[in-house]
Predict the structure of Peroxidase.
Amino acid sequence: MDKSYKLRVATFLMLCVVVRSQLSSDFYSKSCPNLLNIVRREVRNAIKSEMRMAASLLRLHFHDCFVNGCDGSVLLDGSEGEKFALPNLNSARGYEVIDTIKSAVETECSGIVSCADILTIAARDSVVLSGGPTWKVLLGRRDGVFANQTAANDLPSPFESLDSIISKFAALGLNVTDVVALSGGHTIGLSRCALFSGRLSNFNGTGAPDSTLDSSLIPELQSACPVNSDGNNTVALDNRSRDLFDKNYFANLLKGRGILQSDQVLVSNDSATRAIAQLYSNNSAVFFCDFANAMIKMGNIAPLTGGDGEIRSNCRVVNS
Ligand code: HEM
Ligand SMILES: *[C@@H]1O[C@H](CO)[C@@H](O)[C@H](O)[C@H]1NC(C)=O
Ligand SMILES: *[C@@H]1O[C@H](CO)[C@@H](O)[C@H](O)[C@H]1NC(C)=O
Ligand SMILES: *[C@@H]1O[C@H](CO)[C@@H](O)[C@H](O)[C@H]1NC(C)=O
Ligand SMILES: *[C@@H]1O[C@H](CO)[C@@H](O)[C@H](O)[C@H]1NC(C)=O
Ligand SMILES: *[C@@H]1O[C@H](CO)[C@@H](O)[C@H](O)[C@H]1NC(C)=O
Ligand SMILES: CC(=O)N[C@H]1CO[C@H](CO)[C@@H](O)[C@@H]1O
Ligand SMILES: CC(=O)N[C@H]1CO[C@H](CO)[C@@H](O)[C@@H]1O
């Protein structure tokens, strides 16, 4: 084994995460040295008043990065924007928290830090403050100047096949390991009944519930989602530890207790994703490492850098 290879292996073991990027962890170290402390403090405050906010901020970053890259486009107001796309409407949340963080950051370092970077740091801090892994956040993204509702409507859906979800991730440079690890984000947060109640009866026109559902989960979900309710009731995506970022999500899947169809299919028909979920279900160190790595990869999707885009002064509107 040559020396540089040994060094690479040693570095890998030490940091776990090895992803190349045009972004850098010290991007604001001179221009806004207190940035990470400000974001951490504000995320902690938000979570103190509502623990679910950790999950909401994590999801917001995912929905930002999958549409036009991580450019803060999901934050833009307006009925033509991404907020009104089906996967986000009455669903994505946390915009007010991003506003609060942004104004705290502007007070110390005006016009310096992008909304896209603030969201990226907030997502990392949400995971850490929920008991999950930490990683070095790469920074230097600039904010986009347009939203794309059409692309937001094409975000992965809970009704989609695993193959189709895998290809949507692959198109953005994320592989099967990343699909399973990032799906583990569902270890925190809630889902509305409308997004899984079709599994409870006459699933896919079969006249029966989804056969992959654990039979003891069906009455639990039916009582949380009465037939004549409007679909807005919520249940925890990981009912064993709803606010804790842990590996229970994967243990749930192996028992047929995944809430969304798109969760459960990770262990149904595909032996590759199933093997990864099995590994994570009893090895949180591997899950945490792969999750951190995949979050950095997701955060690297098509960033605007250099002279592209802008530093928005209000995360909800492009600068005039
Ligand atoms: C693999 C494809 C994915 C699908 C189909 C999917 C689908 C969903 C759905 C349907 C909900 C519930 C939304 C609602 O109730 O209105 C949800 C919630 C959530 N998703 Fe995903 N998701 C996926 C991937 C991800 C990824 C990559 C992350 C982050 C790493 C993530 C993090 C979350 C979180 C934290 C919540 C809870 C949000 C809250 O409570 O406010 N999801 N997801
Ligand atoms: C918006 O997204 C759609 C679908 O992904 C794409 O075809 C279209 O070119 C995008 N529009 C812009 C302005 O980038
Ligand atoms: C996915 O990519 C990561 C590197 O980012 C790599 O370590 C992992 O082995 C890949 N997984 C698959 C299934 O190719
Ligand atoms: C349910 O139906 C959809 C298409 O109608 C199909 O893609 C999916 O594989 C079916 N799911 C199961 C678990 O049979
Ligand atoms: C859920 O609540 C929103 C308002 O928060 C409402 O517009 C929507 O119609 C409700 N969904 C259903 C299925 O009734
Ligand atoms: C991990 O869990 C699987 C079942 O999901 C089990 O077969 C295997 O023995 C476990 N491995 C360890 C190291 O605990
Ligand atoms: C689907 C669901 O939410 N099931 C259960 C979650 O856990 C509580 C107890 O902690 C049960 O009452 C729910 O039925
Ligand atoms: C598309 C497909 O092959 N779906 C199958 C996945 O596995 C479940 C049982 O675990 C079957 O019911 C589905 O038909």
